[in-house]
Write a structure and sequence with these properties.
This protein has 175 residues and is mainly alpha-helical. The chain is built from six helices and no strands. The longest helix is centred in the middle third of the chain and has 29 residues.
Length: 175
């Protein structure tokens, strides 16, 4: 409900919470009833204006992948910059290596067989989890499970780069 509320317009307000509906305030509702009623209203907000919902969801992409400095504390900025920014190139390179080794980037690859591999399942999880939060409530902290699952790709990239460096150092000197 709060993530789809019209108060956002088409630009997600990361820390903004929508006010509770006036007609529900004061009723003796338990948590499960609140959840059910607010979920129903949130879905109705999407159905009433799907174009606004699409634009609002697109605005959440930046909130989900935020890694640049913001007006928060120095500690938050350093943490965000040193984690995601540092590892992103290794995530990408590792994913390319994994796809080249186990999947669709390999010549003669069988997409159907690849779809049942652990690499495909991990990539599907990463895509689904990111999409789920982009369509609902996006903040950098919800990206952390995706970052954690991507760490083996970063390790693969670092291992490959280390091997390449070792081969380069052992090559014969040209006189």
């Amino acid at each position: 409900y709060s993530a789809q509320h019209p108060m956002h317009g088409i630009s997600f307000i990361e820390h903004g919470a929508a006010p509770l509906p006036e007609d529900l305030v004061g009723q003796d509702l338990n948590e499960a009833q609140w959840d059910r009623l607010l979920m129903r209203r949130g879905i109705q907000l999407v159905l009433d204006d799907p174009g606004r919902y699409l634009l609002l969801s697109l605005s959440r992409v930046l909130d989900f992948f935020e890694f640049w400095p913001t007006d928060t504390s120095l500690l938050h900025n350093v943490g965000r910059l040193s984690s995601f920014t540092l590892f992103l190139p290794f995530f990408i390179y590792g994913i390319v290596l994994a796809l080249r080794g186990a999947g669709p980037l390999r010549s003669g690859a069988d997409w159907l067989r690849f779809s049942a591999t652990p690499v495909a399942m991990i990539l599907c999880f990463m895509a689904f989890y990111a999409l789920l939060h982009i369509l609902t409530w996006a903040m950098p902290r919800y990206r952390l499970p995706v970052d954690a699952v991507a760490m083996p790709f970063a390790a693969l990239a670092l291992s490959d780069l280390w091997s390449r460096l070792q081969r380069w150092r052992r090559r014969p000197a040209v006189a």
